[in-house]
């Protein structure tokens, strides 16, 4: 009984937080809204040489839809991802508050196996992704270096594998997605530069840095399982978000491991006279 | 290839006497901005300091003993912006004023202020009988706004001169210091330089950038001004005195300032103790270091004889100067 109440409450909350589904003619669109809880490990040597660890709350909203490009083989995916974290130093005397919001939009070419099947079991997606990130990491006891601003723009390679199968006679879709930034720009104060000098005096010094895998190797891994629940589809997953940089001799990392749970709403409209790909998630 | 894109990590020291010692020594070695300058001026050898203090460590030493070693090691830097914060004590080197005459006595100052002085935020002010304005600015930590300054300088507008008493102001917010200094210039003036470290090396600094003082849009002081200083003028007040030295009709009178020209940053040790250190050096208009203070234009000290008579030698000297 208690479990059912919990599921009902979760279903209600996630339904309210989901964006309304909007479908365009001849396109498949799915919206997934996930919330998650996990652990994060922060290092920012501008603030402290120590690793800070603590809980993190995650939010993610994903929109996935097919375009008409390349005979319907290209899908477009946008992801809003936000998080807030409260972390402590090893001695638990230092505290950081952090949060950021991340937006990415990507275009994937889809290969299906078997290719002539209307409901292929395996789908492989590969394509470019543009991303932007903004946030802050605040240390509660520092003086003139109390916080670090996070701001990035990047071009990433994105790949995903979707495998559909049946479990206990129910259709299930498993997906693994990997996003790896290849190049971009990131804000960083110089090694010992104060925000007073940057913003009050207007002195800049290599504060916008070019990033690539050799100075800012990052990756986002998302493993999800979609399965039907009542009139909708639930999604549970694991998020591993690794962000790193070594710029202006300042080291930064944020390692997130989070359990995600949410709801998927998808809509397929078939027009008889027009080629439309099959449902692509379930 | 994989090694080149591996995890970004910083060496994590153990929470042991040795680990905390090495962490503190490394923080200063990589971030402190005056190691080279103090090697030249006071003969500081930071590697030699490591050897000397490392020998005093033992595995079973108490926190109090560890604090003593670490605080003494930091004292070698002779920097008031360098502190070690623990729950029970603060490691410090305050020799920048403790070793010098005070040149300030609150009871004397109160005699001159009287009881009917005005208060504008943290500023206290009045007009002396000889029509000299007197403004006391005890701190830049608790701020004042442009509205406060407009009121103060409008009230004092008919005075023949102004004494700005900065004694015992040990600093605070640089923006407050700049807000006050902007009242004393009618044009944009070059007042100094600032730079920052660009890496771990002792000589890794950015090209110094010019610092300018912009005139205030509010009421600006046009008469002669004497700024009173003593050894407790430190940090943001030291920078304020540097700026005022470049303003027209301003005389710095009293003792040398205490210094403190490095903008302090914070870091921490594995055991949770916090450390503060100078990170960004500021210079005067001729690119000279002002870490050890700024010389006054007129050197004056409070004499014992005057003090016994209830006379503040610095205020009286400033009044004579302004009435000449």
How would you describe this structure to a colleague?
- The complex is a heterodimer of chains A (282) and B (324).
- Chain A is mainly beta and 282 residues long.
- Chain A has one domain (2-268): Lipocalin, CATH 2.40.128.100.
- Chain A has 2 helices and 11 strands, in the order αβββββββαββββ.
- Chain A has helices spanning 2-17, 195-200; strands at residues 28-44, 48-66, 74-88, 95-113, 122-139, 147-167, 170-187, 208-211, 219-229, 232-247, 250-268.
- In chain A, strand 6 and strand 7 form a beta hairpin.
- The radius of gyration of chain A is 21 Å and the shape is elongated.
- Residues 9-25 and 274-282 of chain A have low confidence and may be disordered.
- Chain B has 324 residues and is α/β, with parallel strands linked by helices.
- Chain B has 2 domains: 17-98, Histone Acetyltransferase, Chain A; 106-261 and 282-323, 2-enoyl-CoA Hydratase, Chain A, domain 1 (Alpha-Beta Complex), CATH 3.90.226.
- In chain B, 31% of the residues lie in helices and 19% in strands.
- Chain B is built from 11 helices and 13 strands.
- Chain B has a 7-stranded mixed sheet with strand order 3-4-5-6-9-10-13, with helices on both faces. In chain B, strands 1, 2, 7, 8, 11 and 12 form a 6-stranded antiparallel sheet that branches.
- At the A-B interface, strand 2, helix 2, strand 10 and strand 11 of A face helix 1, strand 11 and strand 12 of B.
